[in-house]
Specification:
The protein is an alpha/beta fold and 286 residues long. It has 2 domains: 125 residues, Translation factors (Elongation Factor Tu (Ef-tu), domain 3, Beta Barrel), CATH 2.40.30.10; 146 residues, Rossmann fold, CATH 3.40.50.80. The chain contains 6 helices and 14 strands. The strands form 3 sheets. A 7-stranded antiparallel sheet has the order 4-3-9-1-2-6-5, with helices on one face. Strand 3 and strand 4 form a beta hairpin. Helix 5 crosses helix 6.
């Protein structure tokens, strides 16, 4: 899904009702959960979808507005007044310009993280509907999310276990962060995934950096390899679905991890192509 291809003409004003930091104070990463309330019964969003936030653009660069997509991070609620209340997960970020080497603040993330309760924000959408619950109640699910890529799986799992009582398949959630402090919804501030701890078919596996204090990348090879033959057997099953969310850079590192698991690039490329063709490898990358 390319931002420039999205129809953003249908816009709505939402009110911020809550903003909460969900990473510990000692973590260098500031990630916040925002609760937005959209008036009017016509707005519908569901787990697996994203909303577009329209932030003020950089006037100096001739940009009137800036569009950024954020995944729905919970099951949307309907208030007594008929408004829709939903949550999104936002990491305050900046980036290095590849041409001049200067550091710039991320436009949308800093705009959202600086909002206070009562502020209004313009949104559009929702867009997409990628992560579906399989029709087969015994299907196996491998969910892989890095950083704020965990948000759509939080909503997905809540929907799965609250609204789909027939589902009895196994679920493995691989959640990545450079350190344990960055395991969103699984840290000392928020441990939302603990509510699934008594479900025998659910398991959450952490993937962290081998060099967390040196800005190292998440070690997906170690995390994937820690399940070895068990995970390989899962991937070869005809009813296994693999859902992936996070930054685009995760794709190559995961491919390398699965190549090692399957023994050769040719074997993994062939298997992944089969999964993609069958709608059983689905990516939501940005």
């Amino acid at each position: 899904m390319r931002l420039q291809d999205l129809d953003t003409t249908d816009r709505r004003s939402a009110r911020l009702t809550s903003t909460e930091r969900i990473t510990p104070d000692e973590s260098p990463e500031e990630v916040r959960e925002l609760v937005l309330e959209i008036p009017g019964a016509a707005f519908e969003a569901s787990p697996g979808q994203s909303i577009g936030i329209i932030a003020p653009g950089e006037v100096a660069f001739g940009q009137a507005e800036h569009l950024r997509l954020y995944s729905v991070a919970d099951i949307p609620e309907r208030t007594s007044e008929g408004a829709t209340r939903l949550r999104i997960c936002v990491r305050r970020c900046d980036y290095i310009d590849p041409y001049n080497g200067e550091r710039y603040r991320g436009i949308a993330s800093n705009y959202l993280c600086d909002l206070t309760v009562g502020d209004r924000v313009t949104l559009t959408g929702p867009f997409g509907d990628l992560f579906h619950i399989p029709d087969d109640p015994e299907a196996a699910l491998i969910l892989i999310g890095a950083g704020t890529g965990i948000a759509p799986f939080r909503a997905f799992l809540m929907h799965l276990y609250r609204s789909q009582p027939r589902f009895g398949g196994e679920v493995k959630l691989f959640h990545g962060g450079r350190t344990g402090l960055e395991m969103l919804y699984r840290n000392d501030v928020r441990d939302d995934f603990a509510q699934f701890g008594d479900i025998a078919t659910f398991e959450a596996i952490e993937a962290v950096s081998e060099r967390p204090h040196w800005d190292g990348e998440i070690d997906w090879t170690k995390a994937i390899g820690s399940r070895g033959e068990e995970l390989r057997e899962w991937v070869l099953r005809p009813h296994t679905y693999i859902y992936l969310a996070g930054l685009e850079s995760i794709r190559d590192r995961l491919d390398s991890a699965f190549v090692k698991l399957f023994g050769s690039s040719e074997t993994w490329t062939r298997r992944k192509a089969e999964l993609v063709a069958g709608g059983r490898w689905v990516e939501w990358l940005y």
